[in-house]
Amino acid sequence: TLCRQLKQVILGDQVRAVTIYDTKIAYFPAMIGRHIKDVRRRGKGLEIDLSGPVVHLHLRMSGRLFWQPDFGLPPTHTRFTIDFAQGRLLCIDPRRFATLDLRHEYEAGKSSIPNLLAGIDLDPICLQAQRRRLPIKAFLLDQQVLPGMGNIYACEILFESSINPWRPTCDVTPEEWQKIITATADILKIAVTCRGTSISDWRDLFGQKGEYQHRLKVYGHAGETCPRCHGQIERQKLSGRGTYYCPSCQT
Q1: Does domain 2-110 have CATH number 3.40.718.10?
Q2: Which CATH architecture has domain 122-245?
Q3: CA gap 137, 140 in Å, rounded
Q4: For residue 17, what are the β-bridge partners?
């Protein structure tokens, strides 16, 4: 959602100014005067291509990006701002975890990873899975396997695939992996259309809530009736993450 919205407002524009409000963030004068060639997702982060150097931005746990068309005073907890002709991009992060880095284009390319909405090669995923016994949900959240996968969507994808989150990866069949990949593409396409999932205080680039939280079938529904088999949805911790599933129909 953020990647698509950023393209709408800054693609082709020129960086006019960069202001740093946090000493943990480095200032990169090489950004000034550069035009935005592309904005792309890189795992859970974003890359902004400046026709040479590439800005790598990761919001971590609490960071948020906002677009400010009127160049007003930055709100509390602003870590940095980037000014363009048509407005200002702000990074707001009360916990100061978000990171900003500038890399050469060829360095950024070395860490290239597939977008979750693009075609996913099933063979190497199955090969990795056959060698490991960790729970399938933990495997999906491994950013080296499916970069950009988050906890909410992992719960929903495994529900759609009828697979128990604790199932060892080596026991998942190629046919079941195909179900997982299909569910991943279907769910994330709809989530992007809905501008994401607003749990807690998440907002999109324009300060609006997403809408996909209204479509969640298991996440956040512990104790409620399963929409598929009418069993009871449960919540347990798996690898430190809240995991929602139906023990009756996810095997």
Answers
A1: no
A2: Orthogonal Bundle (1.10)
A3: 5
A4: 83
The answer to whether the CB of 100 falls within 8 A of the CB of 57 is yes
- What is the rounded CA–CA span in Å between residue 159 and residue 219? 10
Three-class secondary structure assignment of the chain: CHHHHHHHHHCCCECCEEEECCCCCCCCHHHCCCECCEEEEECCEEEEECCCEEEEEECCCCCEEEEECCCCCCCCCEEEEEECCCCEEEEECCCCCCEEEEEEHHHHHHCCCCCCCCCCCHHHHHHHHHCCCCEHHHHHCCCCCCCCCCHHHHHHHHHHCCCCCCCEHHHCCHHHHHHHHHHHHHHHHHHHHCCCCCCCCCCCCCCCCCCHHHHCCCCCCCCCECCCCCCECEEEEECCEEEEECCCCCC
d(CA 42, CA 40): 6
The owner of tokens 């990006």 is 65
Nearest residue to 113 via CA among 147, 153, 139, 142: 147
For the chain, which residues make up each domain, given as ranges?
Answer: 2-110, 122-245
From CA 228, how far away is CA 143, in angstroms rounded? 30
State the 10-residue block means of pLDDT for the chain, 251 residues long.
88 95 90 93 84 87 88 91 95 90 62 49 80 92 82 95 97 92 88 70 74 86 97 96 97 94
